[in-house]
Amino acid sequence: MAIERTFSMIKPDATKRNLTGAITKMLEDAGLRVVASKRVWMSRREAEGFYAVHKDRPFFGELVEGMTSGPTIVQVLEGEGAILKNREIMGATNPANADEGTIRKVHALSIGENSVHGSDAPETAAQEIKYWFSDTEIVG
Ligand code: UDP
Predict the structure, then answer these.
(1) Catalytic residue list contains 54
(2) Sheet containing strand 3-10, strands side by side
(3) Beta bridge partners of 34
(4) Domain annotation covers residue 80
(5) Can you tell me which residues form the catalytic site?
């Protein structure tokens, strides 16, 4: 499998509970390498822009509220098949449906406060990385 890069976020529900290290360790233990990382407090405009694909969904307002309620760690992860590997270690969107040992099973509070984000395909990974990072901020 090819070496890929994907975009990941440790969401405010998790940073507020001081889980940045614990979640990053789970990503690293799964074979992913953090090649860029920064801590941001998203503006409403940034959150709405990032999640624009969901703007007509009923949970959009709540999603933007949650994402602007505290700091987020935005990261670029690199590794073999990184996009799928990250989705696997994250677990299902709703933690009630997440497999044992996944980040969302272990740490998420609810479908809205589900601790992590990960790109779902190569195209979205490229877009999402570009949304938060310049090329020089990524050090492989
Ligand atoms: N979300 C929510 N309620 C829902 C579906 C999604 O609050 O019914 C939030 C949740 O935080 C999720 C995000 O919207 O992580 C993006 O949804 P998506 O379906 O893309 O899930 P993901 O890719 O994050 O698993």
Answers:
(1) no
(2) 33-40, 72-80, 3-10, 116-118
(3) 77
(4) yes
(5) 117 (pros-phosphohistidine intermediate)
What ipTM describes this predicted complex? Answer: 0.98
Q: What is the pLDDT of residue 1?
A: 79
- All residues at 6 or more sequence positions from 113 whose CB lies less than 8 Å from its CB, including other chains: 11, 13, 66
Structural domains of the chain, count: 1
* CATH code of the domain covering residue 126: 3.30.70.141
Answer yes or no: is 140 within a domain: no
Nearest ligand 1 atom, CA 51 = 16
pLDDT tens by residue, 18-30: 999 999 999 999 9
Q: What is the pLDDT of residue 45?
A: 98
- Residue numbering of the annotated binding site: 11, 59, 87, 93, 104, 114
Å from CA of 111 to ligand 1 middle: 7
* Structure-token pair, residue 96: 């009630």
Q: What is the pLDDT of residues 74-124, one digit of tens each?
A: 999 999 999 999 999 999 999 999 999 999 999 999 999 999 999 999 999
- Exposed / middle / buried, residue 125 (Cβ in 10 Å: 0-12, 13-18, 19+): buried
* Ligand 1: nearest atom to the Cα of 114: 11
